[in-house]
């Protein structure tokens, strides 16, 4: 039996998400040069089976979703889970995870978020997960289009986007291009929204991006992204590891959003940044967010790393509750 130490375990679970983001960014171009498929795919049936087993084990750590939706878009079929929560008549939360990290990565946050609202989670299209990419995604416009089609298909009038890491970029990219039905945006340690990635993070991600190298290389990088927190095997970490090794991404590298794009986002935006993030300069990011966003609230958690969600799930839920109370 594995002992469960909640705060440490939460931190370790979220470590892997940051590692997956940079590893995927670093290796995507190399795969694109010698892999013929124009869409993301599993390298073999055996690799897919291994990932699906890990995915099911990780899903078992979430509350039971009351329904699953497979929404057809112009670029493929997108898996969405619905979790019934408090205030069923209010606009729900739509959670967008980090790169190579599908819905089960929200296991630590769902209990507190469900005390606020109904929650939808998405397996991002073109990533390892239950969504199936069927058409090339070649631009930020394409990224916004498939997600807009998902939002449009959901049976709600409005919703709040919650984006983690690269999911933060995905949320703001949609808000800047297709804001219909979006009541507000909540960003959790977003990357490539207000600042570039730190060069140290990019350099350190290169060996972690090679799936044939020992897992210890990826674990070392994962630990570094969470400021040297130790790493242990947990179901979510196993799932992300399986996805990184088994799935080839064919997605464009996102560009940092410009001032004009950010200034065009007129709905309220709550940004929660980690004061000790190694992924980017959070101080510069906070300054730019405060300067550029027309209706923005920024908070920096002084002692948090990029693993902010696993470190501070209750504080994040409290800040989201305060934010939701101010949105008309």
Automatic annotation (TrEMBL):
Coiled coil feature spans: none
Pfam families: Abhydrolase_1
Source organism, top-level taxon: Bacteria
Molecular function via GO: catalytic activity
Occurrences of domain AB hydrolase-1 (ranges): 92-228
GO cellular component, one term: membrane
Name under which the protein is recorded: Pimeloyl-ACP methyl ester carboxylesterase
Protein species of origin: Micromonospora nigra
